[in-house]
Specification:
Two copies of one chain form a homodimer. Chain A has 201 residues and is an all-alpha fold. The first copy, chain A, is built from ten helices and no strands. The interface between A and B is large, with 36 and 36 residues. Chains A, B: This is Transcriptional regulator, TetR family. Chains A, B: InterPro entries: ArpA-like (IPR047923), Homeodomain-like_sf (IPR009057), HTH-type_TetR-like_transc_reg (IPR050109), HTH_TetR (IPR001647), Tet_transcr_reg_TetR-rel_C_sf (IPR036271).
């Protein structure tokens, strides 16, 4: 195997092992030795890639910070109404958080003090984007009269956070939990036309 | 001031300061020195009350573990239908989590490894209790036909968790977030009769 490829594999093994440990035990409580044990990587090889545990955590936070804008961009480019975009985007985000421990650990760490002040927290983006989508959906008549689009945006985002926290430790996972939230929420907030169009698709 | 009363006040000051630090910075990342600084208590006085930071965290976890059963018991004894009990109970829980940093920090720590295996995690109770209430509500015709009571229970509990996590750092707080969730969710899942009875009260 070429040396560069081997180095990439080693780095990946470290990142995945760290994500699994951080996800289970928490960043602060995870000793470097646990990451080395889980990844099967020597201390020397670790320090070739990362100067310290903190640098590794930052790599995870940066990795999630790169992935969310892509997901959001992909959904916003689709030719869908704003409510369908909000629904599809958060459902996919929940599935990804369930399946991908690197993304889940990085997202959890984005609110940790090591990420503070680095502009890597994607939470404000989610909230702004959801508020915008739900306001547009409301203006286009996709929400029932009297439904506050901002409240729907906050409820949906809190549901994603709750699904991530609970779904990482017990069945059902975050994906199913987010789907359930939308199914239940949409019955009360979406206009009958939007709901019947959705069923027809 | 009698000596015993002074000791109680000192202990309370330590507990509140620790809760504030754990809530903001996380248990593992909080040094004992930060708790001493915030509480204005000397090291000697601290060690009179607690053998170590871990014992203090356990006191917080035990404190929340004592409070939730009381809240649940109070609500279950009320002469209300099961859906009203679920709604009122989770709304009050969210308000308490918003207002009381000792309760919030202890609840957050209940899933920390220091609490593991001590039977202090109240999450299984919440889930079992909500499942039971929603199943009874469904059997009594308080949910719309086709609505899965277990999904409603899971969504409501994930909403409480999401409201606690998000509401501790930004407006609106957990109480308002949980109210919003119920307002939006109930429109889609509660029977028209239950909703109109509720409005009439």
């Amino acid at each position: 195997m070429p040396q560069q490829r081997r180095a990439q594999l080693t780095r990946h093994a470290i990142v995945v092992a760290a994500a699994e440990e951080f996800d289970r035990t928490g960043y602060d409580a995870t000793p470097l030795s646990a990451i080395l044990r889980r990844s099967g990587v020597t201390k020397g090889a670790f320090y070739f890639h990362f100067a310290a545990k903190e640098e590794l955590a930052l790599a995870l936070v940066e990795s999630q910070a790169r992935r969310w804008p892509k997901l959001r961009g992909d959904w916003l480019r689709r030719e869908l109404d704003p409510l369908s975009i909000a629904v599809g985007m958060l459902s996919e985000a929940a599935r990804l958080l369930e399946e991908d421990v690197v993304l889940r650990a990085g997202t959890g760490l984005a609110r940790h003090r090591i990420a503070e002040g680095r502009g890597l927290d994607s939470e404000p983006d989610w909230e702004t984007l959801l508020l915008d989508l739900l306001r547009r959906a409301s203006a286009d008549g996709m929400l029932r009269p009297g439904v506050d689009p901002e409240a729907v945006a906050r409820v949906a985002y809190a549901a994603l956070v709750g699904a991530r926290v609970l779904g990482s430790r017990r069945e059902p996972g975050a994906g199913v939990r987010m789907e359930e939230t939308w199914r239940i929420t949409l019955q009360g907030v979406a206009s009958p036309e939007w709901l019947s169009n959705r069923k027809a698709r």
